[in-house]
Specification:
A: about 140 residues; alpha+beta; five-stranded antiparallel sheet; B: about 170 residues; mainly beta; Thiol Ester Dehydrase, Chain A; 2 helices; 5 strands
Chain lengths: ~140, ~170
């Protein structure tokens, strides 16, 4: 279901829990699918003894992918024109992430498409932002 | 660094969607997808990142016959730094700081892409602990089998200039 420009207002929000109690296995699945096998994401011996972190942590791109689920659920499939993020904090096994999109503008873009501008924030269970970003999606 | 052949495959899309915990049937159900607005299966928005699988030199993948810097029974002691011209990972120069995708159209099974990667801007910021943070952008353009630009990606990596911290 695509969004209707006429029904969107600046300040509207859409929010979803995109992962609950992130498992180490989910991180391994992301390594396997994406091809990023950096041992900091799956190798407890390496990450604690060599890299010096408390434990493994998620790929930034896993957080971006999880956040993308909220985004496509909101704007509809095939509607994104742009999606960009900054990784603002690390994501650890056991984290629960909530992703939120807020409407910042509804406008016609340079290509003549009706679009919505969205500001994106994903926070962990402590309220710390792990992702801040933006997206542009076509609307009807 | 260029990727000559990035095959967008239905089973890879299914695995990638599972990896980002997205059960949306647009990624795995051809009948559902056929009735949807797009009309066919598409790839999730961050799928282009999986082009690392098709980069023969990607430095964050163990390769047969080559030493790997991750542990075996114990740490191997192997230092692994990215070499010049090796791999196309956005985070290749350190930690991954930002990632941006612009979609000219959405990827679908059967696409056979090729990618061109080139450096973007490099800039410095002062870190909170006094060290210098060096950001470097990498732009990757993905073209389809008809040589149309389909996705433009910009990755930003950050590395710190080593300083001795006095706590």
């Amino acid at each position: 279901m695509a969004l209707q420009a006429s029904e969107l207002k600046v300040g509207d929000t859409h929010s979803e829990v995109v992962v609950d109690n992130l498992s180490r296995t989910q991180i391994v699945m992301y390594a396997g699918a994406s091809g990023d096998y950096n041992p900091v994401h799956s190798d407890e011996v390496f990450v604690t003894k060599v890299a010096g972190y408390p434990t493994v942590f998620a790929h930034g791109m896993l957080s971006m992918g999880l956040t993308g689920k909220m985004l496509t659920n909101y704007v509809g499939d095939g509607r994104l024109k742009h999606y960009g993020v900054r990784f603002t904090s690390q994501v650890w096994p056991g984290d629960t992430l909530t992703a939120t999109a807020e409407v910042t503008a509804v406008r016609t873009d340079d290509a003549g498409d009706q679009v919505v501008d969205l500001e994106i924030t994903t926070t962990n269970q402590d309220g710390v932002a792990v992702i801040k970003g933006s997206a542009i999606a076509r609307v009807d | 660094m260029a990727i000559d052949r990035f095959l967008v495959d239905e089973s890879h899309i299914m695995m990638f969607a599972r990896a980002v915990a997205d059960p949306n049937p647009i990624y795995n159900d051809p009948e559902y997808a056929a009735k949807s607005e797009v009309g066919h299966i598409i790839a999730p928005p961050t799928f282009a990142q999986a082009s690392a699988q098709f980069d023969p030199d990607y430095f964050l993948r163990p390769k047969a016959g080559e030493a790997w810097f991750g542990s075996a029974k114990e740490p191997t002691g192997i230092k692994r730094e990215k070499k010049e011209g090796e791999g196309s990972g956005a985070a290749a120069g350190g930690l991954h700081a930002e990632q941006h995708f612009t979609y000219h159209r959405h990827l679908r099974p059967g696409d056979v892409l090729h990618a061109k990667t080139f450096p973007g801007e490099t800039y410095e910021k002062q870190g909170k602990r006094g060290g210098k943070l060096i950001f470097s952008e990498t732009i990757t353009e993905y073209y389809d089998q008809d040589d149309n630009l389909v996705v433009t990606a910009k990755g930003v990596g950050v590395r710190t200039e080593k300083v001795i911290e006095q706590d």
